[in-house]
Design a protein that fits this description.
- This protein is an alpha+beta fold.
- The protein has one domain: Alpha-Beta Plaits (2-Layer Sandwich), CATH 3.30.70.
- The protein is 41% helix and 21% strand.
- Helix 3 crosses helix 4.
- The radius of gyration is 14 Å and the shape is globular.
- The structure holds uridine-5'-diphosphate and magnesium ion.
- Uridine-5'-diphosphate binds next to loops.
């Protein structure tokens, strides 16, 4: 049965800063993802705090929100069969040191914080996150 899904991807400041957007977009396209929407923006810290609210009690929350708002990001809506899980697989583990060979974070991640990409972790959160950035 077909299970076409959309998910939110963000190319984070560490990767935009190193001009890795096109290489990362090619990785998505070569795995069969369609990029339905994309925009390059810089968000304010309070917006990063809202986006990452689920992590507000974590020790890394403040630094994470400062980092996500520290420079331009590329936000994208990706579409593919089982896009949420397929994107998580292509991204690799949160800590680039633990990420499997061939994943985006293994190739480009700098640290557990500066790990180059964000991806929604469930279909429900994908809808919320797509709305967060693309609801007009
Ligand atoms: N993060 C961090 N330190 C940690 C765990 C996470 O700085 O110990 C950052 C990292 O940028 C990560 C983001 O917080 O991508 C969100 O964490 P999550 O556990 O949701 O990881 P993800 O879903 O991005 O793999
Ligand atoms: Mg997460």
């Amino acid at each position: 049965m077909s299970n076409l899904q959309q998910t939110l991807s963000i190319i984070k400041p560490d990767a935009v800063e190193r001009s890795l957007e096109n290489e990362i977009k090619e990785m998505f396209k070569s795995k069969g993802f369609s990029i339905l929407k994309e925009k390059k923006i810089q968000i304010e810290k309070f917006e990063a705090e809202k986006f990452y609210k689920v992590h507000e009690t974590k020790a890394f929350y403040n630094d994470l929100c400062a980092y996500l708002s520290s420079g331009p990001i590329l936000v994208m809506v990706l579409e593919k069969e089982n896009a949420v899980l397929e994107n998580r697989k292509l991204m690799g583990a949160t800590n680039p040191k633990d990420a499997e060979n061939g994943t985006i974070r293994e190739k480009y991640g700098i640290s557990i914080e500066k790990n180059s990409v964000h991806g929604s972790d469930s279909v429900e959160n994908a809808k919320i996150e797509i709305d967060f950035f693309f609801k007009d």
